Amino acid sequence: GIQVEQSPPDLILQEGANSTLRCNFSDSVNNLQWFHQNPWGQLINLFYIPSGTKQNGRLSATTVATERYSLLYISSSQTTDSGVYVCAAETGANSKLTFGKGITLSVRP
Amino acid sequence: DGGITQSPKYLFRKEGQNVTLSCEQNLNHDAMYWYRQDPGQGLRLIYYSQIVNDFQKGDIAEGYSVSREKKESFPLTVTSAQKNPTAFYLCASSIGDLILAGNTIYFGEGSWLTVV
After folding, report:
1. Are B20 and B79 contacting, i.e. CB atoms less than 8 angstroms apart?
2. What gap in Å lies between CA B69 and CA A27, rounded to an integer?
3. What is the pLDDT confidence band of residue B1, given thresholds at 50, 70 and 90?
4. Contact with chain B for residue A45, Cβ under 8 A
5. In DSSP terms, which residues pair with A108 in a beta bridge?
């Protein structure tokens, strides 16, 4: 099945800094989503982005499907951005999302 | 408010006992899913259901059982046959098959199960 790798595994930022989180996948994707897992464990949807670029406030995401990666950009980071960022992909073959291990982001005041 | 409700949030179970985790959604979604999360690992699919009265095994179904008698409900039973049940369990739903363009998955708040 598809492999989903996220990097870096951990990231520490000072408040106000920008960051780029990466998600590599091993096969062409039909569905790709980014989530933010809050400290209580809930996954909050950020983007549905199997291709192209989207922006939502300080967050934006780009998926280059032909090169099999997706990037999540966080600008002017805030302490509330802390948590785990997870990407998940589905190839169109079996209706199942495969999840990466996540990137733990800590934003310090 | 529309959403996915999981209960209980925290559950302790003695070894050898079965336990059932509840998942209810009022989003009118056809598809529902159960995932397990362990430290340092990505979410793994336990069971999923695309329609009422039908469900499929995921990647780690051994030791678990589900039912889908109503569209809005998808309870998960962790049986005594599950060798390592202590984990964080997440229920999710989507309007339809994730193969279809635009279908996104939404998660409940999760349930922490500890075997003592």
Report:
1. no
2. 35
3. low
4. yes
5. A14
Pair A86, A43: CB distance under 8 Å: yes
- Residues of chain B found within 8 Å of residue A35, distances taken between Cβ atoms: 107
Closest alpha carbon within chain A to B39: A101
**Tokens standing for B39?**
């430290």
**Dihedral pair phi/psi, residue A9, rounded to 5°:** -70, -30
- How much of chain A exceeds pLDDT 70, in percent? 100
Structure tokens at B74: 């998808």
* Distance, C-alpha A63 to centroid of its chain: 10
Distance from CA of A47 to the nearest CA of B (A): 9
Task: Supply B91's token pair.
Answer: 């229920």
CA atoms within 13 A on the CB side of B98: 30
Q: Across residues B24-32, what is the average pLDDT?
A: 96
User: B1 Cβ partners below 8 Å, 6+ apart?
Assistant: none
| Per-residue model confidence as pLDDT tens digits over A65-97 | 999 999 999 999 999 999 999 999 998 877 889
**Cβ–Cβ below 8 Å for A42 and B103:** no
- Beta strands at A10-14 and A103-108: parallel, antiparallel or unpaired: parallel
